[in-house]
Every structure is written in C-alpha cells, then in structure tokens.
Design goal:
CATH topology: Metallo-beta-lactamase, Chain A
Strand content: 25-35%
CATH superfamily: Ribonuclease Z/Hydroxyacylglutathione hydrolase-like
CATH architecture: 4-Layer Sandwich
Largest sheet: 7 strands, mixed
Number of helices: 6
CATH class: Alpha Beta
Radius of gyration: 16 Å
Shape: globular
Structural class: alpha/beta
Helix content: 10-25%
C-alpha cells in the first residue's frame, strides 16, 4: 500500500528471494525520487522509476539482498549511492556482502563503491526535506536508519515482533540491543517503522509487544 507523507509518497517493493523491502520515495510535484535498499530482481522497481529523477540510493546496510539492484538503478539514473563507511568495501566484495555464501539464491554481487559515506547524526537534504541518519549497528556494523518526521526506514534492525539476526559478519547482539534501546526506543511511540522485511510497525507497538527487546 502506498503512503502519502506530508511531502512525499512511500511505495514499498518486496524484491528477490528473501522478499527484501525496497522503498521508493517520490515527490508527486517534482517527480524527484529516492530509493532505499534496491534489492535483488529489481525489475518491478526499475519499471516504476521510468520518468522519475532519482536523487539518491540510500542503503541501510550492504547485505546482498539489499544491494542486488544498486547497479541497475545507478546506471539507469546516474544517481549516487550512500552507505556507512563501516561497510564501504562490502559493495565490491561478494564474501563480505554475503552473496558468495548463498549461491543458491543468486550470482555473486559486486557493485562499484558508494559515492558518499554516512555517519551518525548526519542530515541529508533530499526531496526538499531532511532525513536524519542514525547509526544503528548490531545486525551489521554499518547499519543505519533514516528518520524523517514520524517515518523511520530502519533496514534489518527492528521488525514487527522481531529483530535482525546477529550471526552474520560483524553482527553483535549487544550492539543491536543498544541500537534499539538507545537510538530507536527513545523516539516517539507514534513513529512508523518501515523495516527491511515484513510489514511496517510503530515504535510504541514494539516497545510494548516485541518479545526480543
């Protein structure tokens, strides 16, 4: 279901064998767009991008299922990629991004490096609005969440009634717990969380019902 924010429209796309959520943010008036986590098998997303001016690709982290469509979108629209420096070399290394580990899910994924590095507390001005970057490691060392108003795009940190796994490269259950409690659960209860997999949720609902935190 599409959601109309006060400034932009949010369209989710479940992509690839792991049904990874990519999010397309568009400004209806200007036809500008931002893509968050373009995953594997991005054909439906690429088709929707026709006629739009893509300002940026924002990556919550660089696991293979979140980056499978990066090069297709970047080459089609000539847009820069933003990624936290802790995973700067994951785009170019199939072993680090995990695509070499599960060959049954697809070919190894190699992308060109990101054009811009993300850091905690950074402000991005895109689509005529501001997004705050929160470094939320634990699922992976460079995991970030993007916050605008009451919308949080959190990747694989916090799910509806679940949390991201921590048994992959650079994962840490302690860091994940700290990220959720010190970065996310201090946000207002009404903040809507758009996760990397599954349905959206709210901070308040997860604080009350999530059995893992």
């Amino acid at each position: 279901m599409n959601v109309l924010d006060e400034m932009f429209r949010i369209e989710p796309f479940a992509l690839g064998p792991l049904a990874t959520n990519a999010y397309l943010l568009t400004c209806p008036d200007t036809k500008q767009a931002v893509v968050i986590d373009p995953g594997m098998n991005p054909q439906s997303l690429l088709k929707r991008l026709a006629g739009l001016q893509v300002e940026a690709i924002l990556l919550t982290h660089a696991h293979f299922d979140h980056i499978g469509g990066v090069e297709a979108v970047r080459k089609q629209h000539g847009c820069p990629v933003y990624l936290h420096d802790a995973e700067a070399d994951w785009l170019t290394d199939p072993r680090k991004n995990g695509s070499a580990t599960w060959p049954e899910l697809g070919a190894p994924i190699e992308c060109d490096p990101a054009e811009y590095a993300l850091e905690d507390g950074q402000t991005l001005e895109l689509l005529g609005v501001r997004f705050q970057v929160l470094h939320t490691p634990g699922h992976s060392p460079g995991s970030v969440s993007f916050l605008h108003g009451n919308r949080l795009f959190g990747g694989d940190v916090l799910f509806r009634l679940g949390v991201g796994r921590t048994d992959l490269r650079g994962g840490s259950s302690r860091e994940l717990h700290d990220s959720i409690h010190r970065k996310l659960f201090v946000l207002p209860d009404e903040v809507q969380v758009y996760p990397g997999h599954g349905p959206k949720t709210t901070i308040g609902y997860e604080k009350e019902h999530n059995p893992y935190v």
